Amino acid sequence: MKPLLITLLLSCLLSTSLVLAQTPAPTASDPVSRIKDEGMNKSEVMKTLTYLTDVIGPRLTNSPNYRRAGVWTRDQLTKWGLSDAHLESWGPFGRGWSIKRFSAQVVEPQAFPLIAYPLAWSPGTNGEVSADVVYLDAKSEADLAKFQGQLKGKIVLVGGIREVKAHFEPLATRWNEFDMLQYSNDQPYPANNGNFDSPAPASQMEGARFRAARLQFLYDEGAALLMSPSSQGDGGTIYVQSASVPQPFNTPFGSRKFAFSKDAKTLPQLVVSAEQYNRMLRMIQAGEKLKVAAELGVQFDDSDLMSTHTIADIPGSDLKDEIVMMGAHLDSWHAGTGATDNGAGVAVMMEAARILEALQLKPRRTIRVALWGGEENAGGSRFYVQKHLGELKRGEAGKTTLIKTPEYDKFSAYLNLDAGTGKIRGIFLADNEALRPIFRTWLEPFRAMGASTLTINGDWGSDFVFFDQINLPIVSFIQDEIEYETRTHHSNQDVLDRIQPDDLKQAAVIVAAFAYQIAMRDEKLPHKPLKD
After folding, report:
1. 348 and 436 share one domain
2. Residue that terminates a domain, selected from 245, 277, 299
3. pTM strictly above 0.85
4. Helices 344-358 and 64-79 sit at what angle, rounded to 10 degrees?
5. Is there a single domain that holds both residue 88 and residue 138?
6. Handedness of CA 352, 353, 358, 362 (dihedral sign)
7. Which of 324, 415, 500, 520 yields a CA-CA distance of 20 to 30 A from 389?
């Protein structure tokens, strides 16, 4: 090595040593450093999630599993030292439902089992049904008339061939630096969330009108069982939500019956994997006569139409009457075990609470954990927000007024996690620019863990919406996508095996640190201007 190069290298090493010497190492008294150590090296997040998903299982709202999960999460939070852990009643929601027995297979002209799953709150078949299969080839109400008198006791295929394309892109992705830069450069989101307020396009409305007429026709004709292709997914992944109920298309929302409504009447309904549904339909089109044998045994429970949220507190000190809330939804769909939607969020919030209790960090404000019921079906946190905090009332000439409860002005912020198993990459500011300098400082210790991005934009469609609508500060985290939209969201593959354990550890650490720092500020987090 040349002398000049040696000199330069020694100079660089000396400079680096001076910089390192000037940067104090985290001390045992630094709360964020302690939170990191507890959450990354002594984590219980996977223990919590494993019990919630593998042992308790899917948690459809008001199902026996959901009620078991409510009791278990309440008791676990109590065991860790949280105060006033309880189940808060909300509703009425509707009937509980669970599967007791299910099977489905083609039996003629040859036998093959079907990858299929019942839609939630579907009625049972009262034993095995073995019946001819009919393809309802109808695209208009006029087409339906051709099948009049031909469907009683039949198993009906509802829907056409769904094209299944090869995957040339990976199913799992992480946001890269370019993606994060795009997030940072986002424009503010619109004042009114289009997902809730914009009228549907005419073509979409017409499609919904026909589907309502088709379901009513099938119900009136006495079909034994309806089978439809999974709307998404392939390779054995099927997406399964709720059964549909026959009713007039223009029934007002407040008067509509849902499958979980106590007096709802509908037909047994299954979702079938795209490839197998396509095969059955192509066989029929080739002139084959198919027969399917299926059995669906279910149990309804309408003894208690109310549901619950799990609520527990880490009491504050001098500002104990003020609340910092961190939440996720406990309910899930039923084809998987609700691991990424949203067992992951529940486990992270519970782990964040465990970390704070384990370290005996005493917040000034009370930190409240909320595990919501009914997010997938009834708005989740909506009932809590309206009861405890406030709601928007639209008066004459469309003017909107915020009606506050006494608790409103004591509420500091709501933190939410509901986008799967991916690590936290940053925060949606949701048009609250005043949060940027605060959160920029708080994110800095987590830059090396991949979390550094702040975007003025917002996310959509989870429990934070109802807090945001009444202008309370929210902390909605940006998460790596992983396989959330491509494989697990509302599907039979939403299971523990799809979880990224290190990502959940990172997320729990960041949530705990943010909740603690919000609870320790002299002032509550700033609100954004309320928009009409």
Report:
1. yes
2. 299
3. yes
4. 20
5. no
6. positive
7. 520
